[in-house]
Write a structure and sequence with these properties.
It is built from 16 helices and no strands. The protein is mainly alpha-helical. The longest helix is centred in the N-terminal third of the chain and has 73 residues.
Length: 438
């Protein structure tokens, strides 16, 4: 394929994936904006404290969903009898995990929230919010599981429709419960509880899908199947969980250094970062299938051209995004802080120029990690992901916070992304020196 037509194709992929990523990110941001409007800066801080719990729920869902659906895809044609009851087994196990976690959150609410960084100011809001969203644990785990199995059973259109309905419903319910019914922050929690049920209802239509092989056979989970599922789903679990762990460490360090308003400021910054990350994820997901296809045919010039396009687009997005954030940082902060708390504004305004230096590196890092996966080098991509989310970032937050204070905390992410970029560039450079011939 000639490069001009290839670049046009990759641009189309990138734009579609950016649109999909932005849709999910905007739903999270709108949910946060509603909570900030209804409950103020303390509501924003309480939400940020509870977020790692929700992230853990998502991680468990991905562990079972991606791990189980991968086993299903590998065996559904060659050995269909081997995976006939796999979905049912994981469904039962997911229900057991979900109910257990709900009980834990409701029986140990206070110690759990204190561990997550809550204090006397944020504890009341965080407690009621956590108790309600914990009721959704089972539904979210089943939803993640079902979405992945239905997609891998050849029905991605239905899973897209289910995901869109879920995100749309939560925005509508957020508005109704928070502002019309006047339930405040608890209204957002109830909206979160109901949203996965709409997705699950739509997914039930898969039973009428003409190419369906997926069956619901409820049998007690087998340890061998659970172990294989956990092994294949663990990288996705680890990647998703890194977000929750980093939020937890940021919250603990910021809370110790400057209190709840610093945690609320981090909530503003982290939600704003979701928009730029959606662009970067869209670019990375857009170039991945094309690089994998060209790698299958060993078309090295085309692979280089696609990777170069992705890196250039990410860098241009970073430049434009950083400029917009510098110019409009106060209006952006005001969106999340309609009570105009001076300390929150001060912390967020100081943090934005430092924290978002990371955008110049993070988009390129995502492209490099996706490139390594596309050329069948997942261990190097996993190594970069592990360092980016855990091994470098977490010690960097603790060390920079201790040595430099708040400024050090904000700079910990840019420094981490820079180190990962250097490592990733080294891996890619070594690959281009000795690319496989077949």
């Amino acid at each position: 394929m000639q490069q001009p037509s290839l670049l046009r194709e990759s641009t189309g992929y990138i734009l579609r994936n950016i649109a999909a990523s932005l849709g999910i990110s905007l739903y999270v941001i709108i949910d946060t904006l509603f909570i900030a409007t209804a409950a103020g800066s303390m509501g924003l801080a309480a939400l940020n404290i509870v977020l790692p719990v929700f992230n853990f729920i998502s991680s468990i869902g991905l562990l079972l969903g991606i791990g189980g659906s991968t086993i299903y895809s590998m065996n559904k044609l060659r050995q269909p009898q081997k995976v006939a009851s796999l979905y049912g087994q994981l469904l039962i196990f997911g229900v057991i995990l979900g109910i257990s976690f709900t009980l834990l959150c409701n029986l140990a609410t206070r110690p759990l929230l204190l561990f997550l960084g809550a204090n006397q100011q944020t504890l009341p809001l965080a407690s009621s919010y956590l108790r309600i969203i914990s009721l959704s644990t089972t539904f979210y785990i089943i939803n993640y599981l079902s979405v992945n199995f239905v997609r891998n059973d050849g029905n991605p259109r239905l899973t897209m429709l289910a995901t869109l309905s879920e995100t749309s419903l939560v925005i509508i319910l957020d508005y109704l419960f928070i502002f019309v019914f006047g339930w405040g922050m608890n209204g957002a929690a109830w909206a979160t509880l109901f949203s996965p049920t709409s997705s699950l209802l739509i997914l039930t239509r898969h039973r009428k899908f003409s190419g369906r092989q997926l069956q619901l056979i409820l049998t007690w989970p087998r340890l061998t199947n659970l172990w294989q599922t956990a092994k294949l789903g663990f990288p996705s679990f680890l990647t998703e969980m890194s977000t929750g762990v980093s939020i937890l460490v940021f919250n603990l360090v910021l809370g110790k250094l400057a209190g709840n308003y610093a945690i609320a400021a981090y909530g503003v910054i982290a939600n704003t970062a979701l928009v730029l990350l959606a662009f970067f994820n869209g670019v990375a997901m857009g170039i991945q299938p094309l690089m994998a296809r060209e790698f299958g045919q060993r078309h090295w010039p085309q692979i280089k051209a696609i990777l170069k396009e992705g890196i250039i687009i990410c860098f241009l997005i970073a430049c434009l995004g950083y400029l917009i954030l510098l110019i409009f940082k106060y209006p952006i902060i005001a969106l999340f802080d309609q009570s105009h708390q001076p300390r929150l504004i001060t912390y967020a305004a100081a943090g934005i120029p430092l924290y978002f230096i990371s955008t110049f590196f993070s988009g390129i890092n995502l492209c490099l990690m996706i490139f390594l996966i596309a050329i069948n080098q997942p261990k190097y991509s996993f190594f970069l992901s592990l360092n980016r989310g855990y091994l470098i970032l977490l010690p960097m937050i603790l060390l920079a916070g201790k040595l430099v204070g708040l400024q050090g905390v904000w700079l910990s992410l840019p420094l981490t992304e820079l180190i990962v970029l250097l490592l990733g560039s080294l891996f890619v450079r070594n690959f281009w020196k000795n690319p496989p011939l077949n």
